[in-house]
Amino acid sequence: MDSASTLRFAPPNGICLHSGLRKVSSSVMLPELQHLRNSLPDSVEVKCVDEAHSALGNCIACNDDFALIHPDLDKLTEEIIVDVLGVKVICQRIAWNVLVGSYCSLSNIGGLVHPDTFVEDLEELSDLLDGLPLAVGTVNRGSNVIAAGLIVNDWTTFCGSDTTTTELAVIDSIFGLRDAQSMAVDL
């Protein structure tokens, strides 16, 4: 492996991270992890995190520049996030919730956060994120667990089938997807 592709194995509670914040369970078997590693470009860095909070996807919300993280994450975990993802880390709560990865979704264009977020808190968070536009909202007919029903990047979004047209309008507006062609997929 080259120096840009470091691979270490996690202790029992560890989580593997690589750029893009994809997660691999610590229960993954060595051949499975090797297959994943062989499927990734050599430039993708993989590090393991020994963290008491095992579901890091619930504890981290990020885009290409920032990672909002659970305020109680270990300092070493924070350093690994900075190192691997190359982002500025901000310890923050969303509407009193420490599980920022559950209660918001971010792209480089905007972010959707828990509907109980106060306007002042929304403005403060936007300032911390260098002016990233933010909106409060829900998915799947009123669920405030945003990330459980919404996956977004700078080009597209996927949301739960129960997401209403009003919720879709907010999502479309904040993530700048108005110019994209919408397409429903029946599964």
Automatic annotation (TrEMBL):
Keywords: Cytoplasm, Initiation factor, Nucleus, Protein biosynthesis, Ribosome biogenesis. The keyword Nucleus applies. One of its GO terms (cellular component) is cytoplasm. It is found in: Cytoplasm; Nucleus, Nucleolus. One of its GO terms (molecular function) is ribosomal large subunit binding. One of its GO terms (biological process) is cytosolic ribosome assembly. It comes from the Eukaryota. The keyword Nucleus applies. HAMAP family: eIF_6. Binds to the 60S ribosomal subunit and prevents its association with the 40S ribosomal subunit to form the 80S initiation complex in the cytoplasm. May also be involved in ribosome biogenesis. Belongs to the eIF-6 family. Monomer. Associates with the 60S ribosomal subunit. This is Eukaryotic translation initiation factor 6. The gene is EIF6.
